[in-house]
């Protein structure tokens, strides 16, 4: 069962939490939402606020929901949920009901959606967004354009202020 905690009580390695454990980014209401798995992102302080940067390609169905809503969640799970995260990262919510396919149970939190099975949830309010611009790759980093964007489908980045935290 999730309960609110103070952001100052968070203790984790963001490199493991984001890059190894993965997360679901979700936006919308429990009756009309989409979620997708992500393993890219950053956390820190920006403009004096605790923020998460989330990267979503514009063709992803979740992008439509993030664009329409001011709030979204970043939800982390225990390892036994890895198959659900794999499905949520490989299938589109346009084509399947991800909750039905995985057993995820959507729940309302702070005006947006997360899942009952989450072990940690960051509720985020959009502050700023931008698109990755290939003109801004510097020096040898220009190789990243070819490696990660052969289709030229550059990520849209959202700065989200963490406005609430929930934990088990």
TrEMBL record:
It holds the Pfam family Flavin_Reduct. Gene3D superfamilies: Electron Transport, Fmn-binding Protein, Chain A (2.30.110.10). GO terms for molecular function: FMN binding; oxidoreductase activity, acting on the CH-NH group of donors, NAD or NADP as acceptor. Residues 22-129 form the Flavin reductase like domain. InterPro entries: Flavin_Rdtase-like_dom (IPR002563), Flavoredoxin (IPR052174), Split_barrel_FMN-bd (IPR012349). Belongs to the flavoredoxin family. This is Flavin reductase. It comes from Candidatus Egerieicola pullicola.
